[in-house]
Amino acid sequence: MSLDATDRAVLNRLQEDLPLVPRPFAAVAAELGLSEADLLARVARFREEGLITRFGPFFDAEAMGGAFCLCAMAVPVDRFEEVTHLVNAHPEVAHNYARSHTLNMWFVLATEDAAGIAAAADAIEAETGLRVLRFPKLQEFFIGFRVAA
Question: Which of 121, 130, 136, 144 has its CA 20 to 30 A from that of 31?
Answer without folding.
Answer: 144
